[in-house]
Specification:
The chain has about 250 residues and is mainly alpha-helical. It is built from 15 helices and six strands. A hairpin with a 5-residue loop joins strand 5 and strand 6. It starts with a helix and ends with a strand.
Length: about 250
């Protein structure tokens, strides 16, 4: 292709906006907390995370207060550099609140960046459920599926009615946002199958979950080696795959 044609093709591609200056201006503005929060809702958490290093420690702490724990936890999940510095700026109690609001796998990655003493102090301050999720992931070898799973998923009991399943979905969606696929379990917690969210939404009350569930849905065991089953996982092209323990109980997804 001639150089002139390349230039023409490049000229036709719109330039992606650079939000850095906009975000810094909003954060440093003298607007009220409410106005700043409303303006920042229009920006992705990843973009906000990229400007943290352009702020002073005081400005960062003010930003966290404006946005609230849940939003800040989403922002922190995108951090790659300086995460230790940002955590050290926080009181241990505030750091624990933020980390326990993250997906367990992201929380594990973040805690792994900290010194053992700091990590241990924060984990002690976290709620029991979050701490157990983290310890579960850490209990598996780094090269196993279990170390890469997340506990962010929706589970529904096999004997639920359609209405009960919808209610369970709504209740769990407040803490778990992976809702495109719902996982069905037996009374003993063992994996039964999976349901597409769309199928549940359009289901009639007289239908049963067994009519909707795909019982041949693929799964992996937490103690399987990642390299041994990664190609098999790719073949299914699913958004997520359930992870089971040795008793076939659903403990996460990957």
């Amino acid at each position: 292709m001639m150089e002139e044609e390349k230039r023409k093709m490049t000229a036709d591609i719109p330039v992606r906006p650079d939000y850095e200056n906009e975000l810094i201006e909003i954060i440093k503005s003298g607007l009220s907390y409410k106005e700043i929060r409303e303006k920042l809702e229009n920006y992705h958490e990843n973009d906000i995370s990229s400007v943290l290093d352009k702020l002073t420690a005081e400005e960062r702490l003010r930003l966290y207060k404006i946005l609230g724990v849940e939003k800040v936890s989403e922002i922190f999940s995108y951090l790659e550099d300086d995460v230790v510095k940002y955590i050290d700026e926080l009181a241990p109690e505030n750091a624990a609140d933020i980390i326990e609001s993250m997906d367990a796998d992201d929380a594990v990655d973040l805690l792994d960046e900290l010194e053992d003493e700091k990590s241990g102090e924060i984990k002690k301050l976290m709620d029991e459920e979050s701490r157990q999720d983290i310890e579960l992931i850490l209990s598996y070898d780094e090269d196993s599926i279990g170390s890469r799973m997340t506990t962010n998923f929706i589970e529904i009991k096999r004997d639920y009615t359609i209405r009960e399943a919808m209610k369970a979905l709504v209740e769990q969606a407040a803490d778990n946002d992976n809702i495109s696929i719902l996982y069905v379990i037996n009374d003993d917690g063992t994996f039964y199958g999976a349901i597409d969210l769309k199928d549940l939404i359009i289901a009639r009350d007289y239908m049963s979950l067994e009519d909707l569930a795909v019982v041949s849905y693929p799964y992996v065991y937490a103690n399987e080696k990642t390299e041994e089953c990664i190609e098999e996982l790719k073949e299914y092209s699913e958004d997520s795959i359930p992870v089971l323990d040795i008793d076939k109980k659903l403990i996460g997804i990957t």
